[in-house]
Write a structure and sequence with these properties.
Elements lengths: L1 E5 L5 H10 L6 E5 L8 E5 L3 E5 L8 H14 L5 E7 L6 H12 L4 E6 L6 H18 L8 E2 L8 H11 L5
Parallel strand pairs: 1-4, 1-5, 5-6, 6-7
Antiparallel strand pairs: 2-3, 3-4
This protein binds guanosine-5'-diphosphate (GDP).
Guanosine-5'-diphosphate (GDP) binds next to helix 1.
GO molecular function: GTP binding; metal ion binding
InterPro entries: EngB_GTPase, G_ENGB_dom, GTP-bd, GTP-bd_ribosome_bio_YsxC, P-loop_NTPase
Pfam families: MMR_HSR1
Length: 173
Amino acid sequence: VVCFIGRSNVGKSSLIKALFSLAPEVEVRVSKKPGHTKKMNFFRVGKYFTLVDMPGYGYRSPKDFVDMVEAYLKERTNLKRTFLLVDSVVGIQKTDNIAIEMCEEFALPYVMVLTKIDKSSKGHLLKQVLQIQKFVNTQTQGCFPQLFPVSAVTYSGIHLLRCFIANVTGNLD
Ligand code: GDP
């Protein structure tokens, strides 16, 4: 099991769609778990792994988000990796820190994915990437040192991210 979290509008649905559209041979089943889950989606990817799409969080719902996600993370048995999405155009925002602090507090192994890299100029993107890289190196314990910059529009970085997911879930193809 891997899970994807990020604030609303960070590009999470688009990324999940992009990840799966490159694997048309894989049957993706969307299931809804009863309970607190209207906003938590489970994608069963063939027999290989399950991707959990966590609810997006924003200015109005940090408390709901933390309650829901914490409840899930406490039950987690086979969660291999958490993918935390950050918008590369604006970098790490205050609301992103909610999720970062949660991953750190629960000592989850997590990976930062930078979304929408097609949107900025190369110069701006480089500046953001360096800033985020510096943050990861100096302010985090559980974050994987390599960033994954992606675009759901150009598919840049999607293949590498898929390989990484395959690797951490033990399905390297
Ligand atoms: P979510 O709320 O995190 O699921 O975000 P969405 O996937 O719905 O995306 C939010 C907005 O960002 C939408 O208008 C998308 O079209 C746009 N978006 C998402 N990913 C990308 C991307 O890689 N590049 C660009 N240019 N726009 C994107």
